Amino acid sequence: MKTRVAVLISGAGSNMAALIDAGQAPDSGYEVALVLSNVEGAGGLAIAAAKGVATVAIPHKPFGKDREAHERVVDEALRAAGVEVVALAGYMRVLTPWLVGGWRERMLNIHPSLLPLYPGLDTHARAIAAGDAEAGCTVHLVTEGVDEGPILGQARVPIVQGDTPEALAERVKTAEHTLYPHVLSAFCKALGRD
Fold it and tell me: For FRET with 139, which of 57, 94, 114, 174 sits at 20 to 30 Å CA-CA?
């Protein structure tokens, strides 16, 4: 039995599409059972639907500043879909301890830097400005701290002479599309053996 995964997105969903495709391989440890977005009309929802995956949009704006009220509706949708693991893929919301606690050690995120370097935003520009020789991406467990959870896997990407944040971002995204499905599959297979 494959682990049922929900992917949470806010935008175009390129990592989500890679996760769906990889999850359809017979030897994958997971299948994407639901794609959920906090943005109605997010591009990734149409991509997921075209791939035969259930989708739901739960916009956060009607909830105002009450993040937990929004997350309670999100959590209901995840549990109703029989989700066992949550994968954040460009989900642009800071999560409350309530949701993180409810999915403790079953929620993963991908971040576009070699954590612990450059948590937060503008990771590519920061790596270039620092004169780093390489950048990359990290899959980690989600904890209450932003981009602080235990690291499950990383991929390294060289920074080349004259690199721009945009060019580096594209190369890192290519690495993300390989790393995230690999780490998620291994994580879900390990869960099944507990």
Answer: 57
